[in-house]
Amino acid sequence: MQNDNWLNKLKERPDLAPDPKFIQSLRNRVIAHKKTSKKNTYLPIFVMTSVISILAILIILTLPTAEERQTLIYQTAGESCANKEESKIVGSWEVIGKEERALYRVSDQHKNKIVKHRPMTFSELNELLYDEKNQYGVEDFAGYKIGDTITIRDVVRDITYDDDQNLSKVKFNTHQNAYTLLVFKGDVRSRIEVNNRVTFQFKVVPLIDCFKYETLEIVRKWEEGVYPTIDDYLIKKK
Q: Mind listing the pLDDT tens digit for each residue in 201-219?
């Protein structure tokens, strides 16, 4: 009200000095108008926090599991692999590491051989390991590469179970005087029977990390002292 009276007087007398309280009230209005709402100040922080939380959750969800990490290690092969052991070529051999593990070198003809991926017997699987160019067995499945899956369909010839070790040995004939033996944890006699045809799937992995020599994942596990269950590889009939 006092400010309104002063404005009326200002109309009558233009030379009248300004009212200090009125001027201060105008300043307060301007300052109050420029103040930022606290709600608006915290909104971007809340949004950023939410985005960071979502990204953290996504990163955790995309981290590989222990099994996936193991698969990644098995699939690592080639010159760019970290911690690769030293090797040297000695004639037809490649000698690897301090233990000097000697492996026959694989010919390009064998590496580039085209093979139809289909269910096969253990006898046919062994034939994939024969390098026709060099005329000897190699650690490389012709027509397959690391990361591929090999399907085996064969007839069980014998099953033995060791109760003390809780291990089963499953026998398959490969040649006239040879056989393939699979070792599984637990008693498999309730899962498969002698003289029945069964189907397995095995992943191809590096025989030695960082090198392109191949083996089956189940063989790598045996070498590490791990005996998987038969259900890790057995394909159930539908």
A: 999 999 999 999 999 999 9
